[in-house]
Amino acid sequence: MFVIYIYMSTDKKSICIGALTYIHSLLEKDYEVCGNLFMNSDYSEKCLIPSDMLKGTTILESERGSCVYKAYSPYIFHTHPNITLPYPSFEDYVKVMKHSEIKHSIIFTSIGVWNISCGDPIGKEEGATFFHKNKLSYKNSRIENDLYYSVRRKHQEPTLNVHLETYIKNVTTYFKKVNMTIRFDKIDLEHPYYI
Ligand SMILES: [Zn+2]
Predict the structure, then answer these.
(1) Ligand 1 centroid to 183 CA: how many Å?
(2) Ligand 1 centroid to 95 CA: how many Å?
(3) Per-residue pLDDT tens for 120-165?
(4) 3-state SS, residue 54
(5) Ligand 1 mean position, distance from CA 110 (Å)
């Protein structure tokens, strides 16, 4: 009988507390900020800090913002400021399907942090086709509806949690073919955020 030991790295990457506080403060702005997360070169603190940060266009009321990344790396992030929708957009999901170099896309919002990964990316071309084919059906699928109204009505726990759970389940099912994983955490500025 063979026993295979798989080395599990306990060296999980985290976002530095200082970086978390800084990115969280960007939620007050009327534009998105996007960038990459790289290991802090100051080895006294082994955690990720933002790099290549760029500003998106000014968000007008009830509109989604957009921010164009300079380049993609395994850990990318962007903000959905307080004035906009606090959950990932269809574009956000398609981005990780298209670019296999992205391992985690972290989205900071007014209700918490989203962490999305695609297990089976389909590449740029197929991803672009998927986007155009499904953009409208995704919108019409009402996947976001309950969460949208829950946020608009400023629901607190446990009502919001129920809607968050349903949303995550529905989105995971929608993107089942590409093995999408979605995680949601409340923002805790006292502790590093483990990716
Ligand atoms: Zn987004």
Answers:
(1) 15
(2) 10
(3) 999 999 999 999 999 999 999 999 999 999 999 999 989 999 999 9
(4) strand
(5) 13
Residues 6+ apart with CB under 8 A from 69: 34, 35, 36, 52, 54, 76, 78
Q: How many distinct structural domains can be found in the chain? A: 1
Indicate whether 92 belongs to any domain. yes
Q: How far is the CA of 85 from the centre of ligand 1 (A)?
A: 9
Q: If you measure from the C-alpha of residue 121 to the centroid of ligand 1, how many angstroms do you get, rounded to a whole number?
A: 18
Give dist(CA 67, CA 120) in Å, integer: 25
Kindly report the pTM of this predicted structure.
0.90
- 6 falls within a domain: no
- Compute, in angstroms, the gap from residue 2 CA to the centroid of ligand 1: 46
In a domain, 134, yes or no: yes
Residue span of the structural domain in which 83 resides: 14-188
